[in-house]
Amino acid sequence: MSRVGRILTVVSVCASTLLLAAALAASANAAYGLNEFDLGFENEDGSAADLSGSHPYAISTVVGFNQHVDPQFGVLPDGNVKDLIIKLPVGFVGSARAVPRCANGVFLNLQPNGRPPCDDDTAVGASLTQTRSGIFANPVFNLVPSPGSVVKLGFFAFNSPVTIEVGVDQKPPYKVSSGLIDVSQASGVLRGRVQLWGVPAAPSHDPYRGSCLGTGLGSIDPFNEFTSRGVCETDLPETPFLTLARDCPGPLSTTYATDSWQNPGALLADGTPDLSDPNWLTGTDPLAAMTGCAELDFAPTIGVSATNPAAESPSGLDFDLSVSDPGLTDPDGRAGSDIEKAVVTLPKGLTTNPAVAGGLGACTQARYNAERLEFNPATGCPDDAKVGTVEVTTPLLEQHLHGQIYVAKQGDNPFNSLLALYMIIRDEELGVLIKQPLKVEPDPQSGQLTTTVSDIPQLPFSNFHLHFRDGQRAPLITPATCGSYEIGADLTPYADGVAPVHRTASLEVSSGAGGGLCAADPAALPAAAGFTAGTLDSTAGAYSPFVLRLFRPDGSQQLSRISATLPQGLLGKLAGIGYCPEAQIAQAASRDGEGQGASEIAQPSCPASSEVGEVSVLSGAGTEPLQVGGRAYLAGPYKGAPLSLAIITPAIAGPFDLGVVVVRTALQVNPITAQIEALSDPIPTILHGLPLVLRSIEVKMSRPQFTLNPSGCEPKSIAATATTTLGAVTTLAEYFQASRCEALKFKPRLALALKGATRRSGHPALKAVLTYPKKGAYSNIARAQVGLPPTEFLDQGSIRSFCTQPDLKAATCPKESIYGRAKAFSPLLDKPLEGPVYLGVGYGHQLPDLVADLNGQIRVLLNGKVDTTKRKGLRNTFEVVPDAPVSKFVLELQGGPKKGLIENSENLCKKPQRAATRFVAHNGLVHVARIPIRNGCGAKKDSGGGRR
User: Fold this and answer.
1) What are the DSSP E strand ranges found in 566-655?
2) Could you give the maximum distance between any two Cα atoms of the chain, in Å?
3) Cβ distance 53 to 41 under 8 Å?
């Protein structure tokens, strides 16, 4: 059976176990069981010892077994005891260091005098056992413990060795447990008494120490009186072997469980009795409550240091909880109260590091519960969930206890919380297994961490050292600025009437991140964002994924939002892409609760048809930040912009699911150049109390045939701004230039027609149709000029109204300023852009401008400068044309004497009319042509009026 060892309680348990092994009884033909069980703490005068934290004179246990009288052999026990396990009251402890040990081989070498040759200094008490052969007094010795025990005690019952293994339960509340396991069937114990001394080296025990213990029986009561045959003094220091509980909750009790060789009881997987088996006989012996708890000392202290003292850097943490308790080892003193509860609050700025989630596992509650004394990584907490270690020092043990700290699975822990830790202290040699859950609560706004540990085992310690791992994936990030940061601990004692204490310690941040300068004020941190952007394939006029990445170094201000303006001609193809509906974006945003990121991955809110790219976010300090991915979806109008991106990121980091983060980015389109300006909403900096510590944000427009390079190769730039959480704005720019423009052709084709009146002074309508080849690689039009022949001039008398620039920008031009319509077809759009053609003023030209207001998925304004040639011909020049592919462009101006702007200066039918055209491509190619103008000559009727 596996034995749990606990330093503090080992000694006391031994005493009670030994008593159980001794036995005397008086019951004829009864079933196996105990007819007597009594355990008590004693003062030297025999009165009950109940002063909390004191060291009793002794602990005495009396056990009697059911017995009967056999006609041939006399008094015999009813069955042979196999196991007898005694659990002492919570908080009772003993020291494994009080006296030296006797080797097991020496102990078993029984001498002719009926006693082992163990040194008197190893004696810790005395025993009386009754067998059918008589009553025997023997010393109790401190032996070398067996594997799985903290303390081992031994004595002889007649000529049979009896050993008691003492340890600590492997389950809360971690009582001291002493056990006689697989007792020899030849022992024949009927009744027994074991007395263990509270301070073995005290002179009062000299007459009964080891070889000085008499073999005779007391004259009054053999089971309450020992005899002596001399004085055996010792040079050992008077070190307490037993210490009473430091809590006064009310009456205490001792419990026992026993079985026989004839009917053995079943054991659980951890080796403890399965008390549901009726073969285990159990009982309880009441004890008086401890007294005087209000007088106990309670003076714990704390200490803390970061493993990395640099600002905003990944760091582990060393935390010490120390107790100076001289009364625990002072035979005349009293041990102080144990700590019942600790609430430790880390300083603001010392927060979780997202990078810790890289490769991190988690321990489920089932695997935590499955932890046993024998380490088994297949069933216990997995190694990848480990984030730290623990070391416990106690004056009651020679060796330190060691353990591991594991991350508990989110929502699957005793607190049903986002964050929790499991501390597992294990020592297979001593049989110690202590499991303790720790609740970790981050402040939702600041990320400040508070850890609460309740129901701490009542086992004295002098130092409790927790070490959280260091390295690039350490679990914490130090504050961003240098200085001294206070950690606080509220410590509550078990002892009634003793006040809780508040303790503080300082954590120092003494250098800047990466060895740089250290700021003392967050506002002094640099706004040091960096920026890269561009297409993966720079070929002019070709489709290629576009990547934009914004980043910042450790020790700089945190990113809050970004904006970027793309160069002219770097466009997205909207044709064939649906919008993510607003209701679906709202659904994604509603999944912001813990654990809902997985739902978004399993069932994305936005349809796949709207997906245009992916997002990669790096979070955490150090050189190994955590990468989290999301998706970018095309969406409709947002905050006055015609288009937007919905960037949806399931915030799943290692074993943590923080829900879904949705960031909308408005996509403004410059109506003159068609340049795209992206402006993001504020980016979250903390989720459920866990700071994101963003290091970089990368957006990749990876949808095939989506991002189109410019058709011009002049140097350009991609501009961006980064705004920090403190409001600092950094202006950034990245060089951009398309390549291989010389491979692009240029072949626009224009058809012109004057419809209606052909007579002199007539007002014909104008229709211009520009077409472009649908196949092949062509550069787009950068500038377009069309000059009409001298036969056509601007009739200013027909001008009814104008559209000013402010009215055009606000789309509030008067209807009377409309003189035609225009329509543009582009392979980038599902539907053509179309709208009115205005006559505008205020553009800095002598004559009114011809402005086409094209609307659809986006808005484009084509501003045409109107002038006349040397030969007085009317001419229109679109000086700025967006670098965007247009398969067809139609411009129509109204005709007629009331609305027509163009007036014939002579009869158009006298001779053919031609227009002079000049088109310039974005790659620099020029196309010049004189093209015929179709008109209504030859028609039966001149519909436009005017003179022939």
Assistant:
1) 571-572, 611-619, 626-635, 643-653
2) 157
3) no
Residues 619-639 as b/e (b if ≥16 CB within 10 A, e otherwise) read: bbbbebbbbbebbbbbbbebe
The CATH number of 744-934 is which of 2.40.50, 2.30.22, 2.60.40, 2.30.30? Answer: 2.60.40
CA distance to 321, 785, 904, 935, per residue, from 751 (Å): 89, 13, 19, 12
Enumerate helices (H) and strands (E) in the chain, giving the number of each: 6, 58
Task: Count CA atoms within 13 Å of residue 770 on its CB side.
Answer: 21
Find the radius of gyration of the CA atoms of the chain.
Answer: 46
Domain ranges of the chain: 7-287, 297-515, 530-741, 744-934
**CA atoms of 42 and 195, how far apart (whole Å):** 10
Contact between 483 and 332 under an 8 Å Cβ cutoff? The reply is no
Coil, strand or helix: which one is 136? strand
In this structure, the chain runs to a length of 948
Tens of pLDDT, residues 643-653: 999 999 999 99
Tokens standing for residue 223: 């089971």
Q: pLDDT digits over 282-325, tens only?
A: 999 999 999 999 999 999 999 999 999 999 999 999 999 999 99
* pTM of full prediction above 0.85: yes
Q: Is-contact 33 265, C-beta < 8 A? A: no
Strand order in the sheet with 656-669: 530-535, 546-551, 694-701, 611-619, 626-635, 643-653, 656-669, 676-680, 559-565, 716-724, 729-736
Strand, coil or helix: what is 19?
helix
How many Cβ atoms from other residues are within 10 Å of residue 76's Cβ? 18
Q: Which fold has domain 530-741?
A: Immunoglobulin-like (2.60.40)
φ, ψ of residue 21 to 5 degrees: the values are: -70, -35
The beta strands (E) that lie in 620-758 are given as: 626-635, 643-653, 656-669, 676-680, 686-687, 690-691, 694-701, 707-708, 716-724, 729-736, 749-755
